[in-house]
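Appendix C reproduces, verbatim, an entry submitted by the partner laboratory led by Prof. M.T., so that reviewers can inspect both the input and the predicted structure.
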Amino acid sequence: LGLFHEALQLARDLGYTVREEALGDLPGGSCTVNGVTHVLLNLERSVAERLDRLLAAIGGDPRLATEPKSRLLEARLRDVAPPA
């Protein structure tokens, strides 16, 4: 749960608008509206699934390299980073 909260704060620090809502069968993901990137997370999914979805949404952001984060979050982000 702590890692999820750290990832939420990191996403918000990077300027993402993160919304947690009941989305039925939809897993959530990112979208851009009026130049603002939103990440929708399905409250009906487990915290682990929401964390995976959030990290997948922000994992390719080059600004991550300069943001402070725990070693555990850093490792999880490496797991979802797009291949070089």
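The two ends are 30 Å apart (CA to CA). Additional entries are available on request from the coordinating office.
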